[in-house]
Design goal:
With 368 residues, the protein is an alpha+beta fold. Helices cover 54% and strands 7% of the residues. The structure holds fe (ii) ion (2 copies).
Length: 368
């Protein structure tokens, strides 16, 4: 029994749970991860293995195990999200059981099922004492992020360079802040004046998209790239005449058609920005397309589904648009918005991603 076995076990558990979010339970990648978990469990004395998540650390068979690195942290977060403090793998566990465990951990149904050879110990959600090191999200935090995004967006013009490094810093701050335990809903920018809505909306869609991406156990670079893409998803709106964009009354058909050009304008603009992830171009182009391939703009390959990152932003964009106060209606509560979105699960939104997002938001609302 050595650290390589522990590491391998943790890695394959995280991989299995991640794969089953995207593929069926019978997919080769899920089957392989389950087989590897099973074979590594066979190396434990008597086939017994206990994994515990204790204050952010992993304890494997009663020994603190800090060498699992990012996969260890991901496993801790996955267990935390399900309110699980301890997993006991007992002798006799089969590959089918392990795959069901992956699926239950990946699914948003809560709590996970029961298994003959896997025991789960639970912690009561909401009883944890506040972390003294938790990030502080206050008016100063909101003002600083708003100023940074406003400054970067101020550079958007066909004739100037977009400060990509500044945007990367903004996104890193978001990621660090919610990793340090900040409440997702409190991190969202408060509703501001109409003129600031462009920036607060970009900030909120970025924060929510990163939180959703993070909950899928995606790689850090991918989470960051999704954060940047989300921050820039509506950049094409800055290239639309202000008289149309900020028109207080009802838009004419022609004006509405102009606004609907913003995904194309945004993608064309971002494609020319050096040092920017290609994901940003794709998300700007696809964020008003829908999961069922309807929506706009109509593309040559319109039968193709949106990229997974665009599917994430379609969800978070819609959520933030509805929860923010607009002149013509009051803002809606998280529950009301999620209820409306649920009706479009499978048509506008990827059902699995929407389920996951719903759990995130319900948890954040309960903890607020
Ligand atoms: Fe948009
Ligand atoms: Fe948007």
């Amino acid at each position: 029994m050595n650290n390589a076995t522990f590491r391998g076990l943790i890695w394959n558990l995280v991989v299995g749970i991640s794969q089953v979010r995207f593929y069926s339970i019978g997919h080769e990648s899920v089957v392989v991860a389950a087989e590897r978990v099973l074979s590594l469990l066979g190396e434990f004395p008597d086939g017994l293995c206990t994994i515990m998540a204790v204050k952010g650390d992993l304890v494997v068979n009663n020994a603190l195990f800090r060498e699992a690195g990012i996969h260890g942290q991901k496993l801790v977060r996955l267990l935390d999200a399900k309110g699980i403090s301890r997993v006991d793998f007992l002798p006799g566990a089969g590959a089918g059981e392990i795959r069901s465990f992956f699926a239950d951990m990946a699914a948003t149904k809560d709590p996970p099922g029961r298994y003959a050879h896997i025991r789960l110990g639970r912690i009561e959600l909401g009883t944890a004492t506040p972390d003294a090191d938790a990030a502080v999200v206050d008016a100063a935090f909101h003002a600083e992020q708003l100023a940074r995004v406003q400054e970067a967006y101020g550079q958007v013009s066909p004739f100037r360079e977009l400060p990509v490094v500044g945007l990367e810093e903004v996104v890193s701050t978001f990621l660090l802040t919610f990793r340090r335990g900040a409440n997702l809903l409190q991190m969202l920018s408060p509703v501001k004046s109409h003129s600031e809505h462009t920036y607060t909306h970009a900030i909120n869609v970025s924060i929510l998209s990163m939180a959703l991406a993070e909950s899928l156990c995606l790689k850090d670079e991918t989470v960051q790239a999704i954060g940047i893409a989300a921050l820039l998803h509506d950049v094409g709106k800055l290239l639309i005449p202000k008289e149309i964009l900020h028109k207080p009354g009802k838009l004419s058909d022609e004006e509405f058609a102009t606004i609907k050009q913003h995904p194309l304008y945004g993608a064309a603009y971002l494609a020319r920005v050096e040092g920017l992830t290609r994901l940003a171009v794709l998300v700007a182009l696809e964020h008003h397309r829908k999961f069922d391939t309807s929506g706009y703009p109509v593309l040559r390959d319109s039968g193709r589904r949106q990229h997974a990152a665009s599917q994430i932003v379609t969800i978070t964009d819609f959520y933030d648009a509805l929860r923010s106060h607009r002149p013509y209606r009051r803002s809606l509560s998280t529950g009301e918005v999620l209820g409306i979105m649920q009706k479009e699960s499978g048509s506008a939104f990827n059902p699995g991603l929407l389920q996951r997002f719903t759990v995130l938001m319900v948890q954040a609302a309960a903890a607020e």
